[in-house]
Amino acid sequence: MAAMEVAKICFRSYKNKSFCVYRLAERCLLNKYGLINVRHLSTHRGPNMANTRKGSTLMFGLFGISMGALVGAGYSYHKMSQANAPLINKELDITPVLEKLPDVQISREVTSPGDTTDLKLTLFQYPTCPFCCKVRAFLDYYGFSYQIVEVNPVLRQQIKWTDYKKVPIVLANVEDGYQQLNDSSMIISALTSYLHDRDQGLKDIVKCYPCIEFNDESGNVKKEILNRYFLMYQGNIPQGRSKEDILEERKWRKWADDVLVHVLSPNVYRTREEAMQAFNWFSEVGEWEKHFAAWERYMIIYVGAHAMWIIGKRLKKRHNLKDDVRLSLYDTCNHWTKSLNKQGTKFMGGDTPNLSDLAVYGVLNSIEGCIAFQDLIDNTKIGTWYNDMKDKVQSHAGYAAMNA
Ligand SMILES: N[C@@H](CCC(=O)N[C@@H](CS)C(=O)NCC(=O)O)C(=O)O
């Protein structure tokens, strides 16, 4: 019964388009006690219930159908009026300057003697989230020093201080406190713009990435961080860069988020065995043994893997992937390597990586411990570029650019 509920939660998480299994685990556990209550309620019977059961079944059935119809009609009406509601473009203030760092435990520190920024960055993350891996690839490549706060996937108390409900989040030291940066692409764009011209001031740069809330055409409230793929060069384009090359970089960064990320889940959970292996790896990297009791961890791994295996098939349809999703993974990555070959350079950025190389590398890096990743390396030519990227990132090869 509990297992059924975990599976249902996985499907709910799929409907909400949640990418990370961490959120799935959270939902499983947060609902745990609720689920148990539901079970008790539904199996509880009053003393005369057995006798009256047959007679009342019809009544309850009719009542249920009428209520269902009423609720359905009400919901459709609500959705229709929402869809017809005017679009609201409300600007949200979710990137404030905090007076001091939130009172959270720092999990580890990455120190780079070459960091001359004094930004004292703090990254709030889940270790295998593709968006967080993207930010780490960027920070490591340029040789930023930063602290990492591992967000507890169950309670997420480490990010309770903010209204922004996702990771990654970065806090950066500014003159009057700590500037909050949300969304992987915005974090990368804002910090790159800052490296280009530190006189702009990070606080002013952040103002170029407002977050707005609006109703989409189906009436759902959506939030979006505007300009997140744009670098704020303020007309002062760096030497050696052209407008075309900046546009191309932007296009590929967007591709990493809109296309590449979506082939990952169906591949990582392609078969039951792969899903189990992936969940075991997530458990290891995310140190689930610290967060969950052994039985909870096994249940999440087992039930979660099976549910995600089924959900993976739906995601395959949603994103129009091939019947054998591995082919879509190969195709997507081949599209990247073919474009590189056509360009005739080692990296998309030329002799050195640019932000699109870092984005694609970061996203792929998030599945490095999964069977799908090894399969990808064995069956495509992306390995050469990937390993070159790994060398560049791990050796902080962008350090010179930071100090240019
Ligand atoms: N567009 C965001 C997406 C971030 C995102 O979806 N993060 C997931 C983790 S992989 C998350 O925190 N989800 C929270 C939730 O589902 O409530 C980015 O690029 O940073």
From TrEMBL:
One of its GO terms (molecular function) is prostaglandin-E synthase activity. Keywords: Lipid metabolism, Membrane, Transmembrane, Transmembrane helix. The chain crosses the membrane at residues 58-77. InterPro entries: GLR_AS, Glutaredoxin, Glutathione-S-Trfase_C_sf, Glutathione_S-Trfase, PGES2, PGES2_C, Thioredoxin-like_sf. The keyword Membrane applies. One of its GO terms (biological process) is lipid metabolic process. PROSITE patterns: GLUTAREDOXIN_1, GLUTAREDOXIN_2. SUPFAM superfamilies: GST C-terminal domain-like, Thioredoxin-like. GO terms for cellular component: mitochondrion. Residues 122-172 form the Glutaredoxin domain. The keyword Oxidoreductase does not apply. Belongs to the GST superfamily. Has a glutathione-disulfide oxidoreductase activity in the presence of NADPH and glutathione reductase. Reduces low molecular weight disulfides and proteins. This is Glutaredoxin domain-containing protein. It comes from Diploptera punctata. The lineage of its organism: Eukaryota, Metazoa, Ecdysozoa, Arthropoda, Hexapoda.
